Amino acid sequence: MLNSTDVFVIGGGPAGLAAAIAAREQGLRVVVADGAKPPIDKPCGEGLMPDAIGALERLGVRVPSADAFAFRAIRFLSSGISAEALFPSGGYGISVRRTTLHRWMIDRAADVGADLLWETVVTGISGEEVRLTDRTIRAKWIIGADGANSRVRRWAGLDACSRTDFRYAFRRHYRVAPWTDRMEVYWGERSQGYVTGISNDQVCVALASPDSKLRIQEALLAFPELNARLQGSEPASAERGAPTANRKLKRVCRGNVALIGDASGTVDAITGEGLGLSFRQAMVLAECLKSGDLTRYQVAHRRLALRPLLMARLMLMLDGRPGLQRRTLQVFRRQPQVFRKLLAFHIGAISPSHLAFDGLTLGWGLLTA
After folding, report:
1. Stated pTM of the model
2. How far apart are CA 193 and CA 211, in angstroms?
């Protein structure tokens, strides 16, 4: 019976599996434990931006085209106005069902030799010990990948964070052929709607709002064009919801414990960056585990989160401000290069310095629109 390992990952979602895969590629022995039975689902928009796809492929996970739907641009819509920007250099994102992505990541983790303990509850940690319901496993490193309500974070005394403003996100799939190869973002007074195709006959609809009681059917009334497209289509899944927020922790590691993914802080779902961020965190974390020093992970984790947090703040400025939404889209239509560069920055294709002039252009445009 397994009684020791180099790395014990608590949480077997995409972040935990990414950490396991990256650590195995560094030659470390890895155990992953999760109380759930796979595949694990979670409410999300199910879109992966081009940089997230690249990070996933560096982990050796390639989602077959038959299991995904490609989108080549982002389209914003508000008050009858729309604007869109293509990904730079012919890039593309993909939408893939969360359960499908999880299956592919499980296969990769198993292929590289991680020990996967499903339906296995972790009851606590102490020093180099991880306690399960029926035994204890010794581990040099303990990784918390158990989500936004992480118990590992609490056990390790890493809960301290800056202010967190919650919103609420809901997701449902509909049986209707995708009408575009764009990811569409609908801006309303109380909510945002996100739509991507996930197959030739289904779309994923996600909505986010500060109102915990707002549900998809009611929220769709604020988006007449989207509501009309979905009329008569059959729901292909139950509505699922979860909180979403920008949460920055003061520390993401202590002693031999490190956090990854939503356990290590969250970026509002408005950015679509959650999964991609966790994949990039996993590769840095694995290098630090191999070197035996988590100090660099703390620094790198903060650096990796800067761009997604900045983009989340910029986009949330539009939340609940119809006039600002309208003026922003008017600027994007008149100055399409501004939208293109913002999108390029969003996916890490250009640095903040490249945005300086276009930021001024956007600001002036908003004042004069």
Report:
1. 0.94
2. 14
